[in-house]
């Protein structure tokens, strides 16, 4: 670790006036401005590792569902979670240092504020998605790691959740909560073994078509399914053009399907068919089908949360472990019908938090079993140490109880508990549907989504929009919330809220109401109030 080398090897900023910010998804922008950011992320990851006594830190290079020309980078903490929030400011500060002197100053500030012993060794692993800009960005990251004297390992092309998995495995190896083998092979084996146990004795469902957004999910899913015989899980991979320039996330993938509420044009879908879509880095998934009248039906993150909570609550009940409390975490974007279903039908506690995985994840940790999903299809299930222990040590008195405990135990292995994971979430859904022998239509019957609309409003300055109550109410500009309330009051089952996007220069307006026409009108009127 040498401040002199850090200073001398600084990568110049592409544009003088570009301001960097470590936000909800780490640094994310056009790939061309990220060279300098990669360098400082290498240094920051090393500092973070030193701060945590040499624990392995992860760095993932991806821009998820964003267009191919974008890229991004985020840090992963030792347990496979997002970088601790208090460090985001350091990242931003370092990224905006334009010369060697100010960078060294920023680094020194972190060292003294965090009382970091720079003699402590640092360990960092990294991976990236299939974007053409990745190899160059990796080089700059490596340069940052090198000047920091970090021990580093490149895992190459990975899904985001695989990197999170690897970080957790490396940091728990040899302990009582060892998470798994720290390799792609180990990940495939852990998930596939659990899936085989979870569906044992049930007839296989009809094939599932998986739209991989022309991204890394295609490569990894193909490798993964080598571990499960076709008689147990049948998949058909589409949108797997990972080397075709411009194809990534283009008219396909989970974000396209959720935003447009339609199947990718490349999918030929008929009644009875089963489809799902991953996003560009395979940490999100949505399911869909067409009904007998060929009408498109989306099964989004809210539907997955409902299905998972229903199944897990039944297993907990059948296992006779009532002390284990299940809870669900959503954001304001969750469809009102889904919240009503969870609270009124399943009678499960529901919390609402601000957008962004880190907020959902931390809230979910408060439950024994915490199910969290964003409507956009990002989510997972967390089992507390106490819940894991109860599942492991409870002695079954009946075959039914035994079966429920085994199923729960399989779920704890099958679910990637570090972060949302399209492959793992797909296996969770397939497990439940297989256990129930349900079609997608049958799953969809739990509740009917309220019509909803998301509108993007471009404003002069989005930072003036401040919210409270998990983003459901605007506090600034003053008076806006009263206006929104007055508009919403005119619609049956109406709900609407406004928040500044964390990833785009815009304000988002969400609206839902009893009918399509009312929803559109409500969204339009609230958008006008914002404008
Ligand atoms: C980021 C978040 C995602 C959230 C989205 C909202 C992570 C890893 N990703 O992509 O969870 O739904 O931002 O975007 O936290 P918005 O702020 O532009 O609406
Ligand atoms: Zn993603």
From TrEMBL:
Cofactor: Mg(2+)
Residue span(s) of domain Alpha-D-phosphohexomutase alpha/beta/alpha: 51-86, 96-174
Residues annotated as binding substrate: 374-376, 499-503, 508
Pathway(s) annotated for this protein in UniProt: Nucleotide-sugar biosynthesis; UDP-N-acetyl-alpha-D-glucosamine biosynthesis; N-acetyl-alpha-D-glucosamine 1-phosphate from alpha-D-glucosamine 6-phosphate (route I): step 2/2
GO BP terms in the entry: carbohydrate metabolic process; cell wall organization; UDP-N-acetylglucosamine biosynthetic process
PROSITE patterns reported in the protein's UniProt record: PGM_PMM
All copies of domain Phosphoacetylglucosamine mutase AMG1, residue ranges: 206-286, 300-438
Pfam (any one): PGM_PMM_I
Protein name: Phosphoacetylglucosamine mutase
Keyword field: Carbohydrate metabolism, Cell wall biogenesis/degradation, Isomerase, Magnesium, Metal-binding, Phosphoprotein
Role summary: Catalyzes the conversion of GlcNAc-6-P into GlcNAc-1-P during the synthesis of uridine diphosphate/UDP-GlcNAc, which is a biosynthetic precursor of chitin and also supplies the amino sugars for N-linked oligosaccharides of glycoproteins.
Family: Belongs to the phosphohexose mutase family.
Alpha-D-phosphohexomutase C-terminal domain sequence ranges: 454-528
Annotated catalytic residues: 64
Superkingdom of this protein's organism: Eukaryota
Coiled coil (UniProt feature): none
Residues bound to Mg(2+): 64, 279, 281, 283
InterPro entries named in the record: A-D-PHexomutase_a/b/a-I (IPR005844), A-D-PHexomutase_a/b/a-I/II/III (IPR016055), A-D-PHexomutase_C (IPR005843), A-D-PHexomutase_C_sf (IPR036900), A-D-PHexomutase_CS (IPR016066), AMG1_II (IPR049023), AMG1_III (IPR049022), PAGM (IPR016657)
Enzyme Commission no: 5.4.2.3
GO molecular function annotations of the record: magnesium ion binding; phosphoacetylglucosamine mutase activity
First and last residue of the signal peptide: none
Gene for this chain: ABSGL_06117.1 scaffold 7701
UniProt remark on cofactor binding: Binds 1 Mg(2+) ion per subunit.
Catalysed reaction, written as an equation: N-acetyl-alpha-D-glucosamine 1-phosphate = N-acetyl-D-glucosamine 6-phosphate
